[in-house]
Write a structure and sequence with these properties.
globular; binds zinc ion; Rossmann fold
C-alpha cells in the first residue's frame, strides 16, 4: 500500500513531547524529506517536567529539550518547528489547545498530519491521548472559516488537511519502507542526550523496525493507521 501513497507537499507531525515523533514516525519523516516534502514538527509541550535533577528548573529544561529537538529534527531534514509550550504532564483536551493546534495548521498548511493514535487501547499517558485528540480536533476546526475566526488574516486562511497518519497505533493499515532512513532515526534519537542514554534502547528501535518490516518482506518499516478525511 505504501508504494501507492501519494507524497504530500507539506507533512506536519503533531505530538506531546520532545522525542515522541522521533520514536514514532521519524524514519518516515526523513524519507519524506529526502523526497522533497517540506516537513514540520509541532510540539504541544517542551518536556519541562521530566527530570530527576533537583537543580533543574522547568524553564531551563524546556530550553534544553527544544535545543535537542531541533538537533534531532536536523538529522531528519525537518524544516520548521512550532513549540506550543504547554506544561509537560498537564495537557488537557480544551478549546484553548484545540485553537492553538488549529492556528498552527492554518499557518503551516500541511496536506498530511502525523500524530499519536488517540484511539490506541490502554494508552495510559494522558499527554499522548490529548495530543492525538487535539490534532484531530484541530484538523476539523482548521477547515471551516467560522471556527476560530479571530485567527484569520492575510496568509492565515482556513485550511483542509485531507490525510492523517496515526503513529503508535495497534491497528496499522499502512507501512513505509524505512530501511534507507533508519540510521537517521537513530541519529535523531541520539540527539535527545538528556533523555536517551541507554544504547540498548536504540538497539530495540532497530529490532522494532525490523519486526514491523518482516511482516511485509522489508528490512525495516514504520507502520501507521492511515485515515482519509472526507
Ligand atoms: Zn511522550
Amino acid at each position: 500500500m505504501a508504494e501507492k501513497f501519494e507524497l504530500p507537499k507539506r507533512a506536519m507531525a503533531i505530538f506531546a513531547h520532545p522525542d515522541d515523533a522521533d520514536f514514532g514516525c521519524s524514519a518516515t519523516m526523513a524519507l519524506f524529506a529526502e523526497m522533497g516534502v517540506h516537513t514540520i514538527y509541532c510540539l504541544l509541550t517542551s518536556g519541562n517536567k521530566g527530570t530527576h535533577d533537583p537543580k533543574m528548573s522547568p524553564t531551563r529544561l524546556a530550553r534544553l529539550r527544544e535545543r535537542e529537538q531541533r538537533a534531532a529534527g536536523a538529522e531528519l531534514g525537518v524544516k520548521d518547528f512550532v513549540f506550543l509550550r504547554h506544561d509537560d504532564g498537564e495537557l488537557e483536551v480544551s478549546m484553548k489547545l484545540r485553537g492553538e493546534v488549529c492556528r498552527a495548521i492554518r499557518e503551516m498548511k500541511p496536506d498530511l498530519v502525523l500524530t499519536q493514535d488517540p484511539w490506541r487501547p490502554y494508552q495510559i499517558h494522558p499527554d499522548h491521548r490529548v495530543a492525538g485528540w487535539s490534532a484531530m480536533d484541530g484538523i476539523i476546526a482548521a477547515r471551516d472559516h467560522l471556527f476560530f475566526p479571530e485567527q484569520l488574516r492575510r496568509g492565515v486562511t482556513h485550511h483542509r488537511v485531507p490525510r492523517v497518519l496515526l503513529f503508535g497505533t495497534t491497528e496499522p493499515n499502512i507501512w513505509f519502507d524505512v530501511s534507507r532512513t533508519l540510521d537517521k532515526k537513530i541519529a535523531a534519537l541520539k540527539a535527545h542526550t538528556s533523555q536517551i542514554r541507554n544504547p540498548a534502547l536504540l538497539d530495540r528501535m532497530r529490532q522494532w523496525a525490523a519486526t514491523t518490516g518482516r511482516a511485509w518482506g522489508l528490512e525495516a518499516a514504520e507502520a501507521f493507521r492511515y485515515l482519509e478525511l472526507g
